[in-house]
Amino acid sequence: DGGITQSPKYLFRKEGQNVTLSCEQNLNHDAMYWYRQDPGQGLRLIYYSQIVNDFQKGDIAEGYSVSREKKESFPLTVTSAQKNPTAFYLCASSPGDLRNQPQHFGDGTRLSIL
Amino acid sequence: DQQVKQNSPSLSVQEGRISILNCDYTNSMFDYFLWYKKYPAEGPTFLISISSIKDKNEDGRFTVFLNKSAKHLSLHIVPSQPGDSAVYFCAARSVNTDKLIFGTGTRLQVFP
Questions:
Q1: Beta bridge pairs of residue B93
Q2: pLDDT for B37-92, tens place per residue?
């Protein structure tokens, strides 16, 4: 059963800590994305990767880092430099070949500050 | 500067009636538009999409209309069902990019 798995579902961070959110997909998609959702707002793009070992900043990349060492995996690290990290984080993937194909999403990770 | 706008934060519709959700955009380079449905604490689920070469796309109870001259997109759900109660996001993609720009969402409530 193909899909996108995000873990953990809930995550708590202490001030000054880095935390890493996991995203794995078995859809054989080339492109992967990280979004952040805040209450009353749409999804905002943090980082995206169209191919292994390559990624680009989205609209709100400050305080975040990513890696794309494997096609299936696109972990997001929320660093201590991110001053307002409390949010709902969503990972998505798509075939990435510019055809009219939708992005598919995981179920998200909710990050909270202790 | 919001390129994709959903000006109605909420909509309440009686079961069996039509739900119409609206979306406006400003970027004339958008060529692909999508609607997603989202329940609390879950990821968005793809609902329906439309290419800029069309003005209508239908899938069961869901129809998306695109008016390029007005830069306006709408989603019609008929008949509406209580299970349709969720937040609906419209999104748009610009030519030659894979990035989506999302609206802020409209919360639809379908009551009996």
A1: B32, B100
A2: 999 889 999 999 999 999 999 999 999 999 999 999 999 999 999 999 999 999 99
For the record, the structure tokens of A54 come out as 């390559």
Closest-approach residue (CA) in chain B for A30: B98
Flag whether residue B78 sits within 8 Å of chain A, measured between CB atoms: no
B96 contact A CB<8A: yes
Residues in chain A predicted with pLDDT less than 70, given as ranges, are 1, 98
Identify all chain A residues contacting B49, using CB atoms and an 8 Å cutoff. 100, 102
Put simply, the answer to whether B44 touches A90 (Cβ < 8 Å) is yes
Q: Where does the pLDDT of residue B95 fall: very low under 50, low under 70, confident under 90, or very high at 90 and above? A: confident
Smallest Cα distance from B45 to chain A, Å: 7
Beta strands in chain B (DSSP E): 4-5, 10-14, 19-25, 30-38, 45-51, 56-59, 62-67, 72-77, 86-94, 100-102, 106-111
Q: Chain B: residue nearest A56 by CA?
A: B99
Q: What is the average per-residue pLDDT within B12-29?
A: 97
pLDDT score for A98: 67
